[in-house]
Request: fold
Amino acid sequence: MYIRTQPKPIMAQINLKSKLRTDSCVLIVTEKFLNSADFSFPKDVSDYILNELKKEDKKTVALNYLGRYISILIVNSKSDQNALKEKVRKHAASVADSINALKEKEVVVYNQTRLAPISLAAAEGLALANYQFNRHITSTKKPVNSLQTITIVGLVKQIDVDHLNIIVNATGKARDLVNEPVNILNATDLSNAFKDMGKKAGFSVEIWNKAKIKQHKMGGLLAVNAGSVDEPTFSIMEYKPKNAKNKNPYVLVGKGVVYDTGGLSLKPTPNSMDLMKCDMAGAAAVGCAMYAIAKAKLNVHVIGLVPATDNRPGFNAFAPGDIITMMDGTTVEMLNSDAEGRMILADALHYAKRYKPELTIDLATLTGAAAAAIGSFGIVGMGNAKQKQKERLYESGFNVHERIAEFPFWDEYAELMKSDIADQKNLGGPYGGAITAGKFLEKYTDYPYYHLDIAGPAFLTGKDSYRGKGGTGYGVRLLFDFFKNL
Reply:
C-alpha cells in the first residue's frame, strides 16, 4: 500500500527575508562581487574571495569558514536568461551537496544582479537537489539530508516564493510516485494517491474500478490489464475555479503503467525491465501538476485523466495477433504487447472528446525511440495543436529547462500503422517509432492535441545535478509554468 507520509519534509522550505543572519551559510550570485556589510565577512575572508576572483577565468569561489559555507558564482546578466537560470540551478545543486556534507540546516540566497528570476532559480536548484527517497531504508545510519531551510534575501515577491514552494513540493511528490516499486504502488494505490492530493489541494477525483471500465468498454485498458492479478483504474481529476480564464477545459492525459514487463513480448533484463516501475511517470506528472495548479489557485479549468494498470504476461494476457476493440469502437491488431502504453492512452484520449478541450496534452514514457533520438536532455513532442499553443509550450520548456524537441507529424507516418485485418495496428515498423506512436494516438482525438514522450528524462540511472537519480518528476514544472503564464 502506498505510504503517504514521510518522517521528514520532502524538500527544504523556501522563505523570503530582508536580511541574512551573520552566521548563515550563503550562496552569492553576482556579476562583480561586492563585499556587503550584510555578509559580516572578516577581512581575511573578503580578501581571500577578492584575490581568488582576480585569477583568470575564475567564476566560482567556495570556502568553509569556521563551519560557515560560502559560495560565490559570477554570472553575466546579459547572457540568455534561460541558460543563465539553468547555470544557477546547477551551481545551487552543488551548493546543496556541500551544505548537507557539513550538516548545516539553512542556506541563504543573496543575489547582487538585481534579476529576481536568478534568486528563484538558485532556490529551486537548492531545493530540488535536496530531494531524497530513503523511506524504505531501515538502518539507523540511513543518509538524511540536513538542509531544511532556504532563505531568499529581497528582490522577489512573496507570491513567487509561494508558487516555488508548491512546484518544488509537487515535483517531489511525482518523484516519490515514480520511485515506488509496484509492490508498494499498484494502479489502485496510484489512484488513491491522486485522491489524497485532491483533498489537500482542492480538486475533485473520481476513480473508476474494473467494473466501471468494462461498462464503458475501454478495450485498450482492459486488454493490457488482462495478464494482471491487480485491477486497472481510470482516474478523472478536475480543477475548475469560478474565475477560470478558459471557456473549454485543458485536458491532461498521463500514461499510468505502474510496471511494464512487456507482457508476452517480454522485455530483456537487466537494464530494461529493472527500471519499469517508472512507466507511470506520465501519470505522476499529470496528477502532481493538477496538485500544483490547484494548490496555487491558478485561474484555469484543467482536467486530468489517468488510465492505470500493470502489464504482465499471466492469465489471459493479450497476445501478438489479437484484435482489440477500443472504447471508440474501432479495432487494433496488437502485434507487440510491449507497445501497451498507446493502448491505454487511446481510450483516455477518446474519453476526453466529451469535454471539447481547448487543448489536450498527453505525457508518457512511451517509446525507446524517443530516448534513442535525443537522450535524457529533453522531451520529444509532436501534435496538431495550434501554433500559438505549441509556442507557449516550447517557451515553458525553455523557462524550466524541460525542453521540447518537436518531431514531424506527417500523415505518411500514419500509413505505417495500417493493418490488413483491423482498423490499425499498434506497431509501425523499425523507423520513426516515436512518431508512429503519436500518429496512432492522434486517431482517437478530434481536438487540438499535443503528445509529449518523456521516456528519456523521466528516470535517470545516474545523478544529474538537481534532477537527482531515479525519478525526476519531469513534466510537472513544465505544465505548471505553461498554465501559470496563460
